[in-house]
Design a protein that fits this description.
Length: about 290
């Protein structure tokens, strides 16, 4: 198993609260019992995979973005910067130029087109990246500062960090943000396989169908895991059958699982059926990706 090419698996869901993090953390710890794995929490607005690991922090760095800084003494108030900014992040207000850092996409247009160099780009802290280690598990997370909206660029930077430092790990897991918008695209686009986690409810089905459309548009191999099986109805299972989507596992709805989760414990260590389900999920991911690589 250790001679194969590194494998990247993204764990995603159409909406929050489906148990995506439970699956990510349990799968990461389960793999780490046998071989090297990197778990990368890309839910940068609310990373919480780290709650389940008591790893050793050995690297921390600031996530930065570049924004223009107005130099009043050079500015001629020509108005070019306001005209060229597509994001309304720089405006002229009377005799002043105001920059809105939260709206700025760091495109450099205003800075480069300012005729008198009155808008040099400077760095601004928008969050922090942390890297933990626990035996064979490497855990990387980025957390955006409150009010910052640069999820896509932060996800991209976090993935680059993981690739540079753990690109040779046998398996890398990306705990993706919920939804189907740009951050999810960024989190899943380099994955070899995407695991979609859902729950068997009408809301779960609705969001799953959107996530399936997204994965099909991205041409990603994917499979579905039903979490809290037993609540709701059978519509998710029927949908998967009709759409010819592989149902990789059904994790039961159980009080014991909920108690383990709420006390920050790993479920598979206490419930053999979950351990078997994780092995089944992993085997399917490996077989599918190996098949695609042939
Ligand atoms: S482009 Fe430069 S000179 Fe013109 S208004 Fe903006 S900051 Fe001032
Ligand atoms: S760097 Fe780009 S996005 Fe930011 S203020 Fe300037 S033109 Fe707007």
């Amino acid at each position: 198993m250790t001679n194969r090419k590194p494998l990247k698996i993204a764990i995603a869901s159409g909406k929050g609260g489906t148990g995506k993090t439970t699956l990510s953390t349990n799968l990461a710890a389960f793999i780490a019992d046998q071989e090297e794995v990197a778990l990368v929490d890309l839910d940068v607005e609310e990373p919480n995979s780290g709650l389940f690991f008591n790893g050793e922090l050995f690297h921390e760095e600031e996530n930065l973005k570049m924004i223009p800084k107005w130099n009043e003494s050079k500015c001629t108030l020509c108005g070019i910067c306001q005209k060229v900014c597509n994001f309304h992040a720089v405006i002229q207000l009377g005799p002043s130029i105001i920059v809105f850092p939260e709206l700025c996409h760091s495109c450099y247009a205003c800075s480069e087109l300012c005729p008198v160099d009155a808008l040099p780009m400077v760095s601004k802290k928008i969050g922090v990246l942390r890297d933990f280690k626990l035996n064979k598990l490497h855990f990387v997370e980025s957390r955006l500062d409150i009010g910052e909206e640069q999820a896509v660029s932060t996800i991209s930077k976090t993935k680059k960090y993981a690739e540079k430092n753990y690109g040779n790990a046998h398996i890398t897991l990306f705990d993706s943000p919920p939804g189907t918008s740009c951050p999810v695209m960024e989190a899943t686009k380099d994955a070899d396989f995407v695991m979609l986690v859902t729950e068997p409810t009408p809301f779960g089905l609705h969001d799953l169908s959107l996530a399936v459309e997204t994965m099909r548009a991205l041409k990603k191999p994917f499979g579905v895991v039903v979490n809290r099986d037993g609540i709701g109805n059978n519509a998710v299972v029927e949908y998967c059958e009709k759409e010819n989507i592989h149902l990789m596992a059904r994790i039961p709805n159980s009080r014991k699982i909920a108690e383990l989760y709420s006390s920050g414990k790993l479920i598979y260590r206490e419930i053999p059926a979950v351990k078997m389900a994780l092995q089944g999920i992993l085997d399917y991911c490996l077989e599918t990706v190996e098949g695609e690589r042939k």
